[in-house]
Amino acid sequence: MEDRRKHNRIPFKVSLVVDSLFKQNNTKIENLDAEITVYDISPRGVGFYSKADLPIDFYFDSEISFDENRHFLTVLRIVRKTDMEDGYNYGCEFVGLADNLALIINEYAEIQNQ
Q1: Would you give the DSSP letter of residue 67?
Q2: Of 23, 58, 77, 102, whose Cβ has the fewest other Cβ atoms within 10 Å?
Q3: Distances (CA, A) of 5 to 1, 8, 72, 105
Q4: Given phi > 0 = left and psi -120 to 50 = alpha, else beta, which region is 44?
Q5: Is 32 helix (H, G, I), strand (E, B) or coil?
Q6: HSE-CB for 53 with a 13 A CA cutoff
Q7: For 47, how many CA atoms within 13 A lie in the half-sphere containing its CB?
Q8: What is the enclosing helix (H) or strand (E) of 64?
Q9: What CA–CA distances, in Å, run from 49 to 8, 12, 26, 108?
Q10: Comparing C-alpha atoms, which of 107, 8, 17 is closest to residue 67?
Q11: What are the backbone angles phi and psi of residue 25, rounded to the nearest 5°?
């Protein structure tokens, strides 16, 4: 199967908590406290695992932090969900990620490849 991704994924492990989800039509799901474990990142998005059953096409706010100097706030949209034995595997895309923030991800990738 051909990999059609435009950007390489970089291994990235961090645990986050999703408090709420929202959709552009003002639909909100609040008080989730859903724990997620991010396992990779690219300038286009992130991949993560969770035991929580989160709906596709919903958005959530997140802070991505590589270290003290490289971090940013962003919005992620859930675009893919796959059932797993002990939870779900998700794919998310960044929404409106500025070029300078994508550079932070690329800098992190370069450091990881050294």
Answers
A1: S
A2: 23
A3: 12, 7, 23, 16
A4: alpha
A5: coil
A6: 3
A7: 11
A8: strand 59-65
A9: 19, 12, 26, 21
A10: 107
A11: -85, 20
Both structure tokens of 92: 């998310």
Q: How many CB atoms lie within 10 A of CB 80?
A: 13
What pTM was computed for the model? 0.87
Identify the sign of the CA torsion 57, 3, 49, 16.
negative
Matching residue, tokens 């370069």 = 110
Cβ–Cβ under 8 Å, residues 20 and 60? yes
pLDDT at 1 over 50: no
pLDDT digits (tens, 9 = 90+) for 91-107: 999 998 888 888 888 88
Distance set, CA 99 to CA 22, 36, 47 (Å):
24, 26, 20
